[in-house]
Amino acid sequence: MVKILDAIHIHDLQFRCVIGVNDDERREKQDILVNLTLYVDLRAAGASDNIEDTINYKSVKQSILAMGETSQFLLVERLAERIAAICLSFEKVARVRVCVEKPSALRFARSVGVEIVRP
Q: Total domain count for the chain?
């Protein structure tokens, strides 16, 4: 049997949180940029036109923001894992790709980030 994995993308989700290992990084919230791909079988939603047959991406966004804006992490890698876990908690999500960027991490670089793929 062929497993269909269609994709829902959330691009450039932004929030601020305390993140970093250095003392100066932990004093104030920093900008975070998140890009997600949620792998889901979208055939039922495509046929029914019913929100119940897909992922409500507004709910995904709200869950990530609720966690992210109140969080404190040392590593971007840990934040990415938490975001992946939130996405996978939605029943229809079979797999997720999470890219988390920290724009202020390195001088002379636009951004630094990590990307993970999980089921």
A: 1
Q: Which residues are catalytic?
A: 102
Residue 19 resides in a domain? yes
How many contiguous H segments (helices) and E segments (strands) does the chain have?
4, 5
Residue with token string 């119940």: 52
Tokens encoding 81: 């894992």
Does a structural domain hold residue 1?
A: no
Q: pTM of this prediction? A: 0.94
Encode the chain (119 residues) as per-residue pLDDT tens digits: 667 689 999 999 999 999 999 998 899 999 999 999 999 999 999 999 999 999 999 999 999 999 999 999 999 999 999 999 999 999 999 999 999 999 988 999 999 999 999 99
